[in-house]
Amino acid sequence: LPTFLPTSLPTSLPTTSLPPTSLPTSLPTPRPTSVPTSAPTSLPTTLPTISFAPTKPSLTLTSALVLDGTSKSSWNAAYEETFKQSLVDVSALIESTDDFVGNLTVSDGARRSRTRRRRLQDASVSVSFVVRVDVDTGEDGAVDIDSYVTAFEAELVSATTVDEQTGVSPLDIALQATAEEKGYEVKITADQEASHSMIATETGGVESSRPPTAAPSPAPSTAQPTTPRPTPKPTPAPSVTPGNPTAVPVPAPTLAPTIESCEKVRERTGPPPDVDSARFSSTGASILVDLDAASDQAGMLAGEYFPCAELLDFADVDTAECFWVSATQIYAEVNKALDFVPGENVTLRANTTMLACDDDRCECRVRNTASSVPADPPDPLPDVEPVFQVPDSIAVCEEGGLAVEASQSIGSGGREWKQLVWSVNATGPPESRAAAKVNGTWENATEALESMQHRAANDTSSEFTAEATELQALANGGFDTLVLSLALENFLGSTKTESVEMKLSTKSIPSVLIVGGANQVAKVGNALTVEASGLASGCDGRSKAQRAVDYAWNLYRLDGVDDPEEDWTQLAEGASADFVNVAANKRYFQLDPFSLDSGTTYVARAEATDTKYDLSNTADVYLAVGVGSVVAVIEGGDRVVSVQDELQLDASSSFDEDINPDCGDGAGDWRGGVGRGGRPPNQ
Length: 683
Hints:
The chain is an alpha+beta fold. The chain has 8 helices and 33 strands. Helix 1 (77-90) crosses helix 3 (170-182). It is 14% helix and 26% strand. The longest helix is centred in the middle third of the chain and has 16 residues, at 442-457. The radius of gyration is 43 Å and the shape is elongated. It starts with 49 loop residues before the first strand and ends in a 27-residue tail after the last strand. The strands form 10 sheets. Strands 2, 3, 6, 7 and 8 form a 5-stranded antiparallel sheet that branches. Strands 10-11-15-14-12 form a 5-stranded antiparallel sheet, with no helix packed on it. A 5-stranded mixed sheet has the order 25-31-30-27-28, with no helix packed on it.
């Protein structure tokens, strides 16, 4: 190695070229040596060389667990130290508590149950953490991040899984042992179900690197002098040949890489998230708000409910609750926000969120500015279906007249109808109306009809009524059918208009209607129940207690929904026939599961008979039987398995909704496969 300063006497031969130190000599030889050295120098170089240990790749891993037995307000350093050390004890990837990056994020974690939302008790917390661990590279020099994330996730799932025999998980044992060892009054356990949910959604990883570590080189050797032998004559000028001191000093190497400015980082990662879209769900009870970039979820956990006003702004926002579905999507329950409708703006409030951090430059992130979009209606729009509670025929002599109820109409979205409009008309044979014009009853009939039409145009309630005198005037004036139409529109913009006809009878026939409307749906695998409500006529002054009726039912199969009645096929009733009405009360029509055929339309007809006068009336209900689904069931659901273990999957519980499992194998032909990344395989 060259000496730190030139020797006082010139060397006779060029110095032997040895590998240079990482630091150059500070100055060249100032002038030629005048006298050759008499003997080799015996002193070594004055400073050892400095080298750098190779930088080993590392991986930043994130996840979260739910712990029972404490609350956020009770969490302290003892809990944090116990939690960190216990994770080290159950993890092969985390080698020490020094691997944790920053502080733990602790919150009273709310989550959703499978049936309906509920909040965790105060004695539960969710704990989010970040660790940086050393990893190995493959033959190509790259880090297989997905493999490490999967292994980390499997470690956490295993650590929080309760043993069926002991009733505790490995993490529970570690938490108790650590607390006892350190003398802490810490009694916490892992919530298995909630922790597994958190692990599945919060575990992730990104490659990072530790800064290089300076390490001194071995002590310089004194076995050989720096100059092997005396120089025979002075050198004419300072040497500048390779391996000897350079003519101009070289600056010392930098000890750390150049740090990218935050401005450059933001140019690379892009601006903070803005609201990209907002759309109502098909029911209108909620909206999904999408962001244009992955966010930090405002520091909240996925599934954790919070007041929407903390993050969003829209009409009646104070009545709404939200939770993060993912880093780019927010779910808001708006069924109580009655003034919030499609077209109203949804605003992401300023300074509420920032970009998700996927590298080591998290400090460069900035918070968002306010952004807004109009809320879109569902696509497609939900169905609206007027449902009438009305008899097919009515005796015009009934003292109470007619009341048509439509409150069971479907598709309002849980709010008042935006539009509800009744309209009324009446029809009859031309010869009957002509006779009415001759006998003087036509004028009364038209006046009664105009009165009902005026009342319908101004009635926004779900019930329409007609007085007995109006019905009698119509019947006497040549009209035999009353036609009612109802137009509905919900707040989402869906509309539907339906009409219903009622025969006007001058006889004292009983009244009968189908509860739930004249159009209903059924499934092959479900039991069917249809209810009729009948009452004998009160035109003779009988009390309601004396107006009971007898019921009978008939069932018809239709080849097409619009088939005329003469084309219907009547089905026979009986144990060995087409159907069996199993209802004990004959007001009801009940069929056992798998009594009907899928994809078929039926008509069930209820007949009510007034035994005093032997007068009958009927009411029909159209039954549309849908086509069921094929349901694939894998016993045990999702699971984590080792690549070294045998995997067996049981799908024998799979079924076809339209096949009776008691009548043989309803599974049919099944195929299975294995895919990657949560996607089904191509088949």
